[in-house]
């Protein structure tokens, strides 16, 4: 066999990935973003050079945070990016969201920024409106963070009685509501404001507390309780600490 014969394209790719993995294992922080993403995409496209796709994705979405929030429709607009990438990113998002939530559940007390961060991990990429709730005990420890409603692109329905029943069932003393605006507008609608007031009033009669109602977008969050234009029974709102 001629040792000087040129290597096949598959051999070259295999050698490149092997060197890339070795560099990663030696010092993960030394890899530039596109090479780190290229290495990850190797789990999706096993027999393809992923360097160009990695660079396209990072350029299109401005970095890892934007990429993780990208919808399937947005990903499909990037040349060379198929449904397998969307599935892979969904898996990464779920792992990151569970890790973030697990860390917050270990804290006592939790802070509003803690909850907003796990809300961003869950809601920042959603294409439909969803309502999630953080249920807290008397020491402001996180009992549960879960989705209670899945709506449409621009609407999600919720009744105050649902919130009351959920809190009573799980022995929660306070709550933070969160929902997303997929269109990117982080300001609350008139319907959002009215719903917040009705929920706060319903909880007031049972001695339960509403900490906040937070709107999440892919790039921002908005605390409705810190907006003075929203009228709720303030004496029944107990503020969460800003920092742990």
Describe this structure in words.
This protein is α+β, with helices and mostly antiparallel strands. It has two domains: 9-94, DNA polymerase, domain 1 (Orthogonal Bundle); 108-236, Cytidine Deaminase, domain 2. It is 44% helix and 14% strand. It has nine helices and five strands, in the order αααααααββαβαββ. It is elongated and about 75 Å long. Residues 229-238 have low confidence and may be disordered.
Task: Provide the fold topology.
Layout: H1 9-26, H2 33-41, H3 51-61, H4 64-68, H5 72-76, H6 83-105, H7 112-123, E1 130-136, E2 142-150, H8 160-169, E3 174-180, H9 190-204, E4 209-216, E5 221-223
Parallel strand pairs: 3-4
Antiparallel strand pairs: 1-2, 1-3, 4-5
Helix pairs in contact: 2-3, 6-7, 8-9
List the keywords.
Cytidine Deaminase, domain 2; alpha+beta; 244 residues
Structure described in brief:
The chain is of the alpha+beta class. The chain has helices spanning 9-26, 33-41, 51-61, 64-68, 72-76, 83-105, 112-123, 160-169, 190-204; strands at residues 130-136, 142-150, 174-180, 209-216, 221-223.
């Amino acid at each position: 066999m001629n040792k000087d014969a040129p290597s096949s394209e598959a051999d070259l790719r295999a050698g490149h990935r092997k060197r890339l993995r070795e560099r990663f294992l030696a010092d993960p922080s030394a890899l530039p973003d596109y090479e780190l993403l290229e290495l990850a995409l190797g789990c999706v496209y096993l027999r393809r050079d992923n360097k160009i796709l990695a660079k396209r994705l990072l350029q299109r979405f401005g970095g890892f945070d934007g990429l993780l929030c990208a919808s399937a429709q947005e990903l499909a607009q990037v040349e060379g990016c198929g449904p397998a990438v969307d599935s892979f990113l969904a898996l990464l998002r779920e792992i990151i969201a569970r890790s973030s939530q697990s860390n917050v559940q270990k804290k006592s007390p939790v802070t509003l920024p803690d909850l907003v961060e796990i809300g961003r991990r869950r809601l920042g990429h959603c294409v439909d409106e969803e309502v999630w709730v953080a249920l807290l005990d008397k020491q402001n420890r996180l009992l549960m963070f879960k989705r209670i409603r899945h709506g449409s692109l621009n609407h999600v329905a919720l009744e105050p009685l649902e919130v009351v029943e959920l809190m009573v069932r799980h022995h929660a003393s306070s709550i933070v509501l969160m929902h997303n605006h997929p269109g990117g507008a982080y300001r609350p609608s008139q319907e959002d404001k009215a719903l917040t007031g009705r929920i706060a009033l319903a909880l007031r009669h049972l001695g339960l507390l509403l900490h906040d109602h937070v709107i999440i977008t892919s790039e921002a969050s908005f605390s409705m309780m810190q907006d003075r234009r929203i009228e709720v029974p303030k004496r029944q709102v107990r503020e969460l600490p800003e920092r742990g």
